[in-house]
Amino acid sequence: MSQISRDDVAHLARLARLTLTDDELDSFSGQLDAILDHVGRIQSVDVTGVRPTDNPLKSVNVTRPDVVVPSLTQDQALQEAPASADGRFAVPQILGEGE
């Protein structure tokens, strides 16, 4: 028995402002129905006594440690900039004033 009809898919497409062909409506209704069937099977599995896990891999912080290193001075950073003003990069305005 189908859980999602072609009309359901057409309605969802309209809500999402998608234009689908008749072939796409038929194809997607079958695909979505198969997905819902699989979800239903997963939901029917008895998990009584199974402890939930948050992450079975027990990942740890994999970032590198912070190390202070010399960096560019303000003048060096601005040296290759196409334009600068008051010690900052100057870029074209993209929004109106006061926005």
Q: Helicity level, as a percent range?
A: 25-40%
Q: What is the molecular shape?
A: flat
How far the N terminus sits from the C terminus, by CA atoms, comes to 55 Å
**Largest sheet properties:** 2 strands, antiparallel
CATH architecture of the domain at 6-44: Orthogonal Bundle
Return the CATH topology of the domain at 6-44.
Histone, subunit A
Strand % is under 5%
Pairing-aware structural class of the strands and helices?
Answer: mainly alpha
Which assembly state applies to the chains in this document? single chain
Describe the secondary structure blueprint for this structure.
Blueprint: H1 6-15, H2 22-43, H3 74-79, E1 84-85, E2 88-89
Antiparallel strand pairs: 1-2
Task: Please supply descriptive tags for the structure shown above.
two-stranded antiparallel sheet, mainly alpha, Histone, subunit A, 99 residues, flat, single chain
TL;DR of this structure?
The chain is mainly alpha-helical and 99 residues long. The chain has a domain at 6-44: Histone, subunit A, CATH 1.10.20. The chain has three helices and two strands, in the order αααββ.
Q: What do you see in this structure?
A:
This protein is mainly α and 99 residues long. Helix content is 38%, strand content 4%. The chain has a domain at 6-44: Orthogonal Bundle (Histone, subunit A). It contains 3 helices and 2 strands, in the order H-H-H-E-E. A two-stranded antiparallel ribbon has the order 1-2. The longest helix has 22 residues, at 22-43. It starts with 5 loop residues before the first helix and ends in a 10-residue tail after the last strand.
